[in-house]
Fold YMGG-like Gly-zipper domain-containing protein.
Amino acid sequence: MKSFKKAIVSTALMGSLVLAPISGCSSLPGNDKQQGAVIGGVGGALAGAALSKNNRGIGALIGAALGAGGGYLIGANKDKITGKDKDRAREEAQTASDRAERNPAKPEDVDRARTADLNDDGFVTLDEVVALRQANLSDDEMVERLEQTGQVFELTDYQEDYLRTRGVSDDVLREMRNMNQDFGRTASAGDSDQLDSGDLDRDSDSDSRDRDSEYDRESARNDRGGERF
């Protein structure tokens, strides 16, 4: 693993994100400078994806790990996105990112796995997709492996360029963009419904307080009127 000059990714995501160095890795193709530009760019672009209306669930989850190489993360399964323990899911996302950075997947890992989630941690990372290509899987085989994960994928321009220059075809990238998106939209809609429900509850409470206040004022006026007579 090589080290090189730190690239700082800063963004406003759910209030704030932790700033930390992003390192290149000799196990992935490209020199340190190229890796830094691509991976650092991935981090910044994913921060925007975290605020995307249609990808709120996976975007927030992946964005939480941006500060320490979260750019390696490109997919997450249903349990990670919709689970109640969000803190644990974010910690697991961070762990997956760190693992991909320290110990990238290798072509030989593909033979031992049934899906594109080569280490079966509930996430798919850039290095795992690169390993699929390096293992000489056909496009159809790669798509099948990716589909079998049941994960939702969010690819940025940086990520697509990174994978494309590593031999991943446009056909595979197109399939990844469209894969399991119905679930992604459903998860986002669920988040919106919860927010809307909370807003309605608050509005209802506010209306109730307003009615109570008006009743109190009316009662006070009636009491004062009775005293004058």
Q: What stands out?
A: Strands lie at 73-76, 123-125, 152-153.
